[in-house]
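Protein in question filed below.

…
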Amino acid sequence: MRQLIIEKNQDKKGLVIIDGKDFHYLRQVLRVKAGDMVKLRLADGQLHNSTVAKIDDSAKKITLQICATLRQTQSPQGEQNDAALEPVEGPFIEYTLFQFIPKPQKLELIVRQATECGVKNIVPVISEYAEKGGIAALAGGKKERLERIVREARQQSGSPIDTKIFEPVTLEQAIDLWNKIKEESGDDACAGFVLSERNVDEESPFDSFDPFDKLRDRNECTQKSVCIVCGNEGGISPDELELLTKKALLYPVHFSVNILRCETAALYGIAAVQTAISGF
């Protein structure tokens, strides 16, 4: 389900005026006409149904009339549903991707795909094998570009998750951040995984998914957290893997498939974890 995300709220009459790049998106990408329905996410984060009330091509403005407020829920099978606004039942699982910084173009793809998958936090990590060019790019205007990519991905996919891009952190800082999340949520409400290109044991990778039993329990708590650590082009060094498993208590996971590029591994890992939680 596509949506339009804007940084304004409706006026007292329930109208929203769309102009600039958002006008172009509605008119040229979605090709809306008067009377069409548009799902609109306002600055307050609420998702609304709206009707295209008026199109002024000369002034490049579109007037939307708010019709109804929606909420998005996620079924145990991962399907998204729209419903009338009401309290959300069951746990909300917040995903955090700790991504070792790859080349800029690959990071853009990872950010886009992670956003479409509903990842809440994307944390670039300065690792042993990180390239200086990728780190330097994040220190400039790259973060603003990544934030635009997030917005575009949310509009295209309809994701209700307000994905955030963090400033780059060291591995120690990443571990501290995850341990803080666990402390706030409680260990029973958290599970973390590090994707390893080396086979760390003889067990099936899905044997490590036992912690997800409690995450599948929709009545245990309302907030749960999952983190996934993915390496960059050089992978994760043995010292880094040891630090993540011993200090952050992450479960190492090795997928017995072809060698994956880092941008493929991130998407593959997110999908595998979400599938394990949904019980398939």
Remarks:
- Residues 63 and 185 are 42 Å apart (CA to CA).
- The first strand starts at residue 4 and ends at 5.
- Helices lie at 20-29, 104-116, 132-139, 142-157, 171-185, 212-216, 238-246, 262-278.
- The chain has a mean pLDDT of 82.
